[in-house]
Amino acid sequence: MKMKSTFIAATLLLVSVMTEGGLSAQNPIVQTCFTTDPAPMVHDGTLYVYTGHDEDKADFFWMQEWRVYSTKDMVNWTDHGSPLAIESFDWADDRAWAAQCVERNGKFYWYVCLHSKLSNTMAIGVAVGDSPVGPFKDAIGKPLHDGSWDYIDPTVFIDDDGRAYLYWGNPNIYYAELNDDMISLKGEVGKLEQTVESFGAPNPEKRVKDVKYKDTYTEGPWLHKREGKYYLLYAAGGVPEHIAYSMSDGPLGPWKYMGEIMPLQDTGSFTNHCGVIDYKGNSYFFYHTGKLPGGGGFGRSAAVEQFKYNADGTFPIINATREGVSPVGTLNPYERVEAETIAFSEGVKSEPNVKTGIYISEIHNGDYIKVREVDFGNKSPKRFTATVASALRGGTLEVRTDSISGPLIAELTIPSTGGWECWKTLQTDIVKPVTGIQDIYFVFKGRKGCKLFNFDWYSLTDKHAREQLGYSSFLLNCSFIYIEGGIPYNSLNVVEKLLGSVNPVNMAISDMVCCFSDNKRAASFKRILRIKSRVVWLVSSLSFL
Fold it and tell me: What is the Cα–Cα distance from 285 to 484, expressed in whole angstroms?
């Protein structure tokens, strides 16, 4: 009996440690899917990370698309979905492997590698878009460079003088200069001569069997510049991989091997792939691990560590952590916040929709989403609004602070809405005042074992429902004047825009907007009369507020 009690106590302690560890973890930075080969880019005050995507339960590098995530605080990451995939390139049919995106003259160029139907080998391609999150399209309708299984993992760098360079390759290192248009090569493609001095070992064909070299370049180059020095980081050592680097006084070398940055350690993955960037005065090192549940060598996830360069400009040793990095900003809950903006989560997935955009799905009982550094200000909000959808039984969305079992500040009951993408905007009161900067947890409850609902966005307001209804009712009455007074139907667009700026309190407002899309004025008028009576009833029924 004593042994049984000891076992139970030990088990509970282990579960407690695992739970607390999970809630404090920041790495991997995305938990809704596997995200490989992270490539960071800063644009207009936002840090973007471009990743690959390992499929669930893969037994090889079966990768179909690339994905984009962004942050302004380094702890909450917004999922922008997959704006680029194999299908974006007519000449390709497989292996959407490592890639990198850069901006030039207002355009965004995404350099990728994938399997070419033209050569039946790997090739380098380039896509272009007008926004960091797309849409993107094949820039030239053919490979930028084709013809070898070596042609993987492109990295791109634009120097201070405007010249742009492209590096890629496994196990050889290739390079080329890009023309100003960023979609064609200037001159011939070169191949770096690897030596013991430059990369720790000679070119693959010159390596002597059983000779132990300082290091060996493998794949995944990352080129960047700092204080006049050029850095080429790469996965090294064969399998398993660590991260090493070389330095130079010029973008094309000669290179000098400098040593390891991230040594071999328990990352849960036999590959690694890095990217380095400065953001808001800090330096960040991105890499991938196999630490997400269900992950491993073919299920990898992006992670990040903050570091400081040594006084002489060299890299320190950087180790993988679960804690990740500290926040460099806060999140404003009084504006629309996408549900796919997440610091950490468990159990949920993200899905795309052309009309809605990205939303959170696969919500089951006990799943949660954590959002960090939420700034409520000095005055507590009064209402919580969320847009949700459920085809069947719905569930409950709890809003808590501190932890998944922390103080409950709001609870929203979600009914069936008629479909998994039939969205309803619902509201509930804040039941416990909250101020200052807090971490919040969206905890999902409902019947066990089944999918409950989908979650699109949320916001908080410092107004009660009655105050919002009064303003909305005023706008609705204005719209009656437009129609009853014979004002041209197109003028209703003004009211529609005004209504769109109000947090809707129930479907009466949504119906109101829908009627503006009806080209038949008579039908619109009848619908508005019905809605008007519903709004009056709602206002009177909420008179106790």
Answer: 62
**Residue 525, amino acid:** F
Q: How many whole angstroms separate alpha carbon 459 and alpha carbon 387?
A: 9
Prior bond of 240 cis (ω within 30°): yes
- Token readout for 442 is 């969206």
Residue the block writes with tokens 């001569």: 193
What's phi and psi for 112, nearest 5 deg? -130, 165
Is pLDDT above 50 for 504? no
Token readout for 284 is 């960040």
- Buried b / exposed e across 122-160, counting CB within 10 Å, b at 16+? bbbbbbbbeebbbebebbeeebbbbbbebbbbbbbbbee
Q: Which letter, b or e, does each residue of 370-383 get, where b requires 16 or more Cβ atoms within 10 Å of its Cβ? A: bbbbbebeeeebbb
Q: Which amino acid is at 152?
A: I
For the purposes of burial, counting CB atoms within 10 Å of the CB of 185, is it exposed (0-12), middle (13-18) or buried (19 or more)?
middle
Residue 136 three-state SS: strand
Burial level of 436, CB count in 10 A (0-12/13-18/19+)?
exposed
Average pLDDT, integer, range 255-284: 98
Query: What radius of gyration do the chain's Cα atoms show?
Result: 27
3-state DSSP percent of the chain in helix, strand and coil, to 5: 20, 40, 45
CA angle (21 as vertex; 16, 23 as ends), nearest 5: 100
Q: Tell me the whole-structure pTM to 2 decimals.
A: 0.85
Residues forming a β-bridge with 174: 168, 191
**Residue 275 — left, alpha, or beta (φ > 0 → left; ψ -120 to 50 → alpha)?**
beta
Q: Which residues contact 467 (CB under 8 A, 6 or more apart)?
A: none
Q: What is the pLDDT of residues 491-501, one digit of tens each?
A: 444 444 444 43
